[in-house]
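Let's sit down with a protein and look at its sequence and fold side by side. We need material for that, and I hope you will provide a protein of your own picking. Once you have written the record down, we can walk along the chain together.

***
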Amino acid sequence: MKQNIGTINSMVRITSGLTLLAWSIAKMSREQPSGSQLFVSIMGAQKVAEGITHYCPLTEALKNEK
């Protein structure tokens, strides 16, 4: 898998992903988990994974389109 995002972009993705995860987990711990909170936690985990691997599938798809 070829890296397609830079270091700063990677750090922003990790930070925003962890923020989304923390928010959704805190929200789910106070009340019954809803579908939207689970969706936000999955998206946060995806952003963290993209930041760690320096690879974004959407960026790759948009580059191949041009």
